[in-house]
Description:
Shape: extended
Largest sheet: 2 strands, antiparallel
Oligomer: single chain
Structural class: alpha+beta
Low-confidence stretches: none
Amino acid sequence: MNKMTNMAGLAVNYLALSSLKPYPQNARTHSRKQIGQVAESIRKPTIPTTCP
């Protein structure tokens, strides 16, 4: 799946996840536990709160 879409001068390139490689100089790394917590927070519905 390598699909190109152009919109108003912007290009979006859709790639298969398997073609992505980690950037070795990325300073941010996450443990499997942290990745699980992020995934769970995305799955969980949240109730929006407002600030007074």
